[in-house]
Amino acid sequence: MSWSGKFLRVNLSKGTCQSEPLNMQWAKEYLGSRGLASKYLVEEIDPKVDPLSPENKIIWATGPLTGTMASTGGRYTVVTKGPLTGAIACSNSGGYWGAELKMAGWDMVIFEGKSPKPVYLVIENDDAKLLDASYIWGKSVWETEPAIKAKHQDPQMRVSCIGRAGENQVLFASVVNDLHRAAGRSGVGAVMGSKNLKAIAVRGTKGVGNLKDPKAFMKASTAAKAVLAGHAVTGQGLPTYGTQVLMNVINEVGALPTRNHQDVQFEGAKDISAEAMATPRASDGKAQLVTNQACFGCTIACGRISKIDETHFSIQNKPQYINASGGLEYEAAWALGAANGVNDLEALQFANMVCNEDGIDPITFGATVGAVMEMYEMGALTKEQIGMEAPFGSAKALCHFAEITARGEGFGKEIGLGSARLTKKYGQPDLSMSVKGQEFPAYDGRVIQGIGLAYATSNRGACHLRGYTIASEVLGIPVKTDPAETNGKPELVKAFQDATAAFDSAGICIFTSFAWTLADVAPQLQAACGDEFTVENLNTIGERIWNMERDFNNRAGFTNKDDKLPKRLMTEAAKTGPGKGTVSGLDKMLPEYYKVRGWDNEGRLSTETRKRLGL
Amino acid sequence: MQKSLLINADKCTGCLQCEMACSYENYGVFNTSKSRIKVFDFHETGKKVPYTCTQCDEAWCLKACPVDAIRIDATTGAKVVIEDVCVGCKVCTISCPFGTVNYVQDTGKVQKCDLCGGDPACATSCPTGAITYVDADWTGLDKMRAWADKLGNQPSA
């Protein structure tokens, strides 16, 4: 088993909470978390629904390994139709919230409708109730969690909530739990806000005790932990440096998108790297990095806890930023830094903290600021329109934008649109570095061919977490492939996409896949859930999930014309680095990818593919 | 020879493997709310601190118990709750100065760390060495070694 076997359905329009049995047939076909919640979403909503309307639904979901002793078994996902993209959205988060939901005895919570007034859900084991959220509406994430714990006199509650960005339906608002862990992308927080839902507070004391074969599970999970501990990335690189270990590496291979993807190497990369975070500052002799932190059950512990320089201009007279809190990880450091040409590490940490405090996706936020800075430099946006000077490299502009975006003040309202809508509104649509409306993460898709294809075909818009071919193309995991090569990349991308869907759906962290393959996951799932979860079946489950997501997007109106990269990556060659002179070979790879996927020329599932996967 | 749990908070990442191992050992379930060791996350400093019973020699809980339900394990030195005898009066939870004896609603008894009979699951499961199980007389050994290294293990002038 290992599933709780039941989920909570909350109708916000009617104010009702009902327990329903989990569809165990679907659990076997879609596993849990991302896959299973997406199955419920796909079955229950019209793909053409307005993401911010009451007709959309939003689901918090755990996987079968969530809440167990499997390493990293604390993940949950938030699944909905995303307002930034109009595509299926699935954002994954760690921290402690997911395990708490599972320990309360629930696999998922499905929200439907819209509450007439702001509410929050409180779950205490079997009891679930909607309560008036007027005392926390308008509050930041950092104010909301302690306020709920104080109100209920329970410091052991775990809270997943939105900040001001979600309330104001900023299109890239995140859902944040445990103060600084986030289901970050695609604007899932805006959907929560559109439903007048502020938070879900959970306390679970039932635990997870229904594994199929606990002894076999302990053996398998212990063996798998040893694999993580013994691997250079998960045993040393990530715990010591965090994901920021990548900053200098990616810059050296000439794939660090800089100044809105105009360049592929950033002269300030070393100033915003993991090494810089660990170096004592001139001002106070202390490093920004305080310590690392694990999420629930994680034996890697890549999380960063950082403390900002108290003398930095960004936090003067702002005491809430003085304590240690969630620090920079690679994607955020890139988006807030290299993407804007800003090399002020303290400014990056300030913007990062505001993103956590207000519930904003730092990737889309940072990338949108990059587009604004380019438009400012070319004169498409003026100082008067923006309210200040905003050239590339301006830490002042970055910090100011961070503070006004969630609140929708002044130009912050425009930034809150995301780069696709903003650049279009001001007549420069080619300057949005995005796919399907969602901005790129921190790897250049014209220099590293596989990741470019992965971005173009990602079901939630541009994303590194839907097929991280960087592992192969840069790090050589599981085997090294040439980043400049397009041959073989469609197969590589498909393999990564399918396996990732299986990892995500199990309830574990995708970072385990630096060291684990599905052969490490399968024994844990078999002991926990059932013998049928072999490596082969997990690959099929992953492929089924990928195709289900794709089919939803097709029915939502997406076609092969949306599987494209911005003009810049197709026509403006990389200026420096090992990939100098290259552009994306997407045109060559995409038709081949469709073939490998078993799709027709327009990117739609063929009848045979549907039949083979049971769709 | 008795051993003690030795906790080095500087090595703790807050993964809660110890809490799950504890609940699994004692109740066969992964359930942090049933753990006898608790990790405290001090967000403002970034410190994570595991905390559990230190097995006092003059144990307040043992002395306070009106039905003699807390007894000494002669081998490990642990103060162990005998569930069949415990009446759930909770006097021990009041008497313990450190808060490490607590009531369990499901069983109607109290629970505290019993060192798992000499093989503590929390120490075995800790991935970073923040929790170890060492010679009870030498819990200071690592600190002494660190200072000895700092003060005496320098190249000669």
What does this structure look like?
The complex is a heterodimer of chains A (615) and B (157). Helices cover 39% and strands 13% of the residues of chain A. Chain A starts with 5 loop residues before the first strand and ends with a helix. In chain A, the strands form 4 sheets. Chain A has a 6-stranded mixed sheet, sandwiched between helices. Chain A is built from 25 helices and 17 strands. Chain A is α+β, with helices and mostly antiparallel strands. Chain B is 24% helix and 20% strand. Chain B has helices spanning 17-27, 60-64, 91-95, 121-125, 141-152; strands spanning 3-7, 38-42, 47-51, 70-72, 79-81, 102-104, 109-111, 131-135. A two-stranded antiparallel sheet of chain B has the order 1-8. In chain B, strands 2-3 form a two-stranded antiparallel ribbon. In chain B, strand 2 and strand 3 form a beta hairpin. Chain A binds chain B through residues 67-69, 96, 99, 103, 156, 179, 204-209, 214, 218, 225, 229, 239, 290-299, 301, 305, 307, 323-325, and chain B through 13-17, 20-21, 23-24, 27-34, 43-48, 105, 125, 127-128.
Net shape of chain B = globular
Spatially, the strands of the biggest sheet of chain A line up as: 2-1-6-3-4-5
Q: Give the helix tally of chain B.
A: 5
Biggest sheet statistics of chain B: 2 strands, antiparallel
- List the secondary-structure elements of chain B in sequence, H or E: EHEEHEEHEEHEH
